[in-house]
Structures are given as structure tokens and as C-alpha cells.
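Figure 2 data, in text form.
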Amino acid sequence: MFEYLSAINHVFEIAFYVLLFILFYASLKKCFLQDGQSKGKLFFQSLITNPIILFFSMCFVAVLIVYVGLALRLHDFTKVDSNSLINDTLTSSVILLITYILFIFITIPISYLVGKSLKAHNKSLVTFVYLMFSVIVTVYSDRSSILSADTGWPFSTLANISSIINVACLLLLYFFIMKALARLSDKKRDINWKLFLIPPIAFLLLYGVFDFYTLTFCSTDANAVVQILSFVIQVLFIWAFYVIIKNIKATGDAQESKEEVKTLSVEVMEALAHTIDAKDEYTRGHSVRVAKYSRMLAQRLGLSREDCENVYYMALLHDIGKIGVPNEIINNPSKLTDEQYDVIKTHPGLGYDILAEIKSRPDLVVGARWHHERYDGKGYPDGKIGEDIPFFARIIAVADSYDAMTSNRSYRKYMSQDKVRSEIEKNAGTQFDPKVAQVMLTLIDEDKEYTMHE
């Protein structure tokens, strides 16, 4: 019976080693191999830096450290019996603890170098792959040194069960974690490295401490309990990270969709702005320039990134009401009559009515309705005064006037920079919000080459 159980155990041991090498290489390849990179080079890297190789290498180093340490204490290397050294419970426990510590501190820099070689966008994900395989390797390696199918009941059965679980954990790790991870690692996402690295590192350290304690001060039964709990934790790890990675991907996909919709919305607004400006050959590009200047002012005024973008969108559509103004008035090359000017003055109200239909962005009406209000209350359409004028509209009003002065018209070329500066300075506090006007003056002073014009 025991021979049969032992044979099953050896089959699963071989399966574990083979699967570990294959799945570890497949994971690095699937998650991090870039186009044009050598698969052979990656295979060699995965072979010599495989967690099982690193673990047994660290075992050798740990034995060497303990061997040398004891020899130095005895002042005679010949007095140290290597066989009794390994068989001594306390010494073997110390060796395991040193192995775990060395294993972690060697795995992290090696995985980083492999990630650097693979030009991975996020090298912490490469380290995560190493650590997750390492969790399974440490439990398996320790199990194989404690349990055997030849030790009789119940350890013979436990040995076989643990072998099956470790093989199953490898398959679960690859199919549930590594395949999901591949969808994160192919893009430059912001990944919280602590979320991915601290749990497996903590597991390896705690497992090493518990393994040391149970081997040194308890019995084989106690160590078997630690092993059983470690199997449970392995499965929980895989399930937890599967959920985490799935949620990160879902959040990232939703954010990408949101960005795509946002980009499309901006492109539609810019196209609409160009359509509005095309009614007058002398105002081509006016709305986009006003939007750009408005955003610059908002940034200098210390507004949030979101508010700066909102000002930009409002400014893009500030003249949308001109759609309802007859072309002959807009393109009139001579001075407008009072009647024609009254028609022009209707475009803020028309713009408000048009944009009010966009229920998802009620703030867009601000720029359209109030960009011709004056700080002294002499503007239109509502005659608002000072702080009663929405702040974003006050920003757009300065940007709008600046572009009007720095653009060519049918009756004049764009004004000189000194003249524009003088006009804004003169009208600060009357036509313009003085704080916004001062920021515009600062931008003008910084524009030494006078590049901010049509």
C-alpha cells in the first residue's frame, strides 16, 4: 500500500517540477515578452532564475552559512559533521529560516532585473509573478522535506493530498492570475505595487517564522497543521488576486471608455466651434484660441485640473449662439447699425437656449450666456456686475477680448502687443475682472516673441 502511495507521490512531484518550469516561462512570456524580443533569451532567464532554482540555491547558501558559523565557533572545520548538521532539528530549522530570508531578498532584485531586461512597463508585476510562484515553491519544498508517502498513516495520505494541491495551485495560478495579469501588463497602467508585493512577501516571512517555530519547539504534527493552513492561504491568495486584477481591469476599461467618450465629446465640440467660426472668414479658429487662452488663465489662477478643462469646454462653445445670427450681419465689413448690433447682442441668449438642451453638461451655458458681461455692470444680456458674473465667464471674457484684439479683422490688422496690453490694463476693473486681467497681463509680459496672436 505504502509503495503504491509513494509511487503516486513521486508522479506528482515530477509533475510539479515540470509544470513549474513550463508555467513560469509561459507566464513571463504571456505577460511581459515584447515584440521583437528573443524567446530563447527569456527561456534561459526563466530557467536560471526560476523560484525553485533560487530556493534550492538559497538552501545551499543557508547550509553553508550555518556550517561555517558552527565551524568558526568550534575553531575546527573537521569537527562539524555535515550529516548531523542537517539532521539536527534546531539547525535544520535555522537553515530553513535563513533560506526564506535569503530567498526573498534575492528574488526581488533578480525579478527586477528580469523585468528591466523585458522592458516591462511595471516591474513590480514581474516581481509579483516571481513571488506568487515562490509562495507555492516554499510550501512544496518544505512539504517534501517533512512529509513522505513512506512515513505511514496519516502522513502518507497527507503527502499525496498536498502534492495534488500544489499541482492544482500551479494550474490555478496560471489560468486565473497570469492570464488575467497579461491584460494589465500590456498597458501603462498605474498599479499600486504595495497591493501586489506586500501580501506574498509577508506570507513568505510569516511562513518561515512559523515553520521555524513548529520544527524547533513543536512536533511534526504541528508542522503538518501549518502546512495545511498554508495550502488554504495559497488558494485564498489566488482567488483574492484574481478578484483584484479583474476589478483593476474593469476599472481601467471603464476609465478608458470614459476617456474615449471625453475625447469624442471634445472633438465634436471643436468641430462645432470651427463650424461656428466659419460663418466669418475673419474669425476662423477664434473659439479654439479663446478656449486655449481661457485654460491658460484658469491654470495660472490656480484652478483644479477639472475646472481648467471645464473652462476650456465652455469657451469652445461660447459663440454658439451666432448660428442664429444672419450671415450678412456677421460678415458686414462696415460699422454695424444700431439695429444690427441689437441682433448681434442676441447671440448669448441664443447660445444659452441651445446649450441648455445638453442636460448632462448644464455648466456649458455659463460661457455662452455671460461672456459679454462687464465687471462694471454695463455688459449684456443680463447686466450682471462684479462677483455676480460667474467666475468662468469672467475668465472667458478676458480671453475673448484678447483674441479679438490679436486677430485680423476686415477693417484692421491685429493690434500690436503693447496696444493690447494697454487696453487690458486700462479696462481692468471696468470691463474685466481685475484679478483675471492681471493674470492676462502676466501672460502677455512672458510672451516676449508675441506668439499669442492669430
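Caption note: The chain has two domains: 2-255, 278-446.
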